[in-house]
Amino acid sequence: MKLDGIFVPVVTPFTEENKVNFDALGKLLDWQLEAGVAGIVACGTTGEYYAFSDEERTQVLTFIAEHVGDRALLIAGVNDTHTQGSVRKAEQAKALGYQALMLAPPIYCLPQQREIVTHYQTVSLEVGLPIIMYNFPARSGVEIEVDTVIELSRDPNIVGIKESSGDFTRALSLINANLDNFSVVCGSDDQGADYLFWGVRSWIGGAANYLPEAHVQMLECARIGDYNALRAIMTKLLPVIQNQESADYNQKAKLALIHRGQDVGAIRAPLLPISDEDQKAFLQLLDAALQ
Q1: Per the UniProt record, which EC number(s) apply here (predicted)?
Q2: Which residues are annotated as a binding site for pyruvate?
Q3: Residue 119, SS3?
Q4: Which residue from 242, 239, 222 is spatially nearest to 230, judged by alpha carbons?
Q5: Is 134 a catalytic residue?
Q6: Cα-Cα-Cα-Cα dihedral of 135, 265, 74, 204, to 10°?
Q7: How far apart are CA 181 and CA 53, in angstroms?
Q8: Which residues of the chain have pLDDT under 70?
């Protein structure tokens, strides 16, 4: 599988009663697909998968698969605290028609590199779907080291890595390794232009939830080699993206979508709404980015 395009880890809208709002989710998916995104990531961190019940997870995965259909690549986040938990989630996604998985190392338990290798190889062997590794040590607590990435890239089911460490020197090491049948995916929104300049053509970005058109435009600029236009777009987006990444990432993703007319509702506990002052500062930057 060649990874190419903008992939959105879609937020999960909630009603005032804190239930999943499937009507709003359908409208959001349609809006993002109309903007030209190439894939939808269900049950990612921006989608608040960590706050789902098992029943809600099944319902959300099912709805997204049925609503999107063949209009975009369907990717399921299958993170868990242990390997068999990820295997079960991956098997469920496969049965529902998902075409790929996004998987971080098991969270909280702090596995060693050889244990990370075994984790991914087990999911690959038992499920048999393409896997995008997810390197985000600030959330998982461990880094997938470059040598480990190279080793795992030899598994035919492991097709790429979403690189969210924020360390662009590390990203360059992976990009310049020129691994066969393996893609480095931008996972640091504030470095999107840098990745695209270096030849990356896939981006899983939480900010693409509310700025899908701009993300698609940036990728198109890179494809045709118009790096001046690419830089101009990124210059406009960077302040709002940096503000989102500084704190309260999921809250701001939803706030931005509401500001753009999408009825996604509030964030779910344990996260809380941000202050009026922080909302105002963020939305001012968003409005500037949309001009």
Answers
A1: 4.3.3.7
A2: 46, 204
A3: helix
A4: 222
A5: yes
A6: -30
A7: 36
A8: none
Residue 124's Cβ-side half-sphere holds a number of Cα atoms within 13 Å equal to 19
Catalytic, out of 120, 134, 195, 210:
134
Residue 162 bears catalytic tag: yes
- Dist CA 170 CA 159 (whole Å): 18
Active-site hit among 162, 210, 252, 254: 162
**Domain edges within the chain:** 5-224
**Cα 7 from chain centroid?**
7
| Nearest-angstrom CA–CA distance, 17 and 31 | 24
Residue carrying structure tokens 């259909």: 69
Q: Check: CB of residue 265 under 8 Å from CB of residue 15.
A: yes
pTM of the model: 0.96
d(CA 121, CA 112): 14
pLDDT single digits (tens) 196-230: 999 999 999 999 999 999 999 999 999 999 999 99
Cα–Cα distance, 116 to 152 (Å, whole number): 9
Look at residue 1 in the predicted model and tell me its pLDDT. Answer: 87
CA gap 39, 207 in Å, rounded: 14
Q: Using CB atoms within 10 A of its CB, is residue 123 exposed (0-12), middle (13-18) or buried (19+)?
A: buried
* Alpha helices (runs of H) in 128-166, residue ranges in sequence order: 137-140, 146-152
Instruction: Tell me the binding residues.
Output: 46, 204
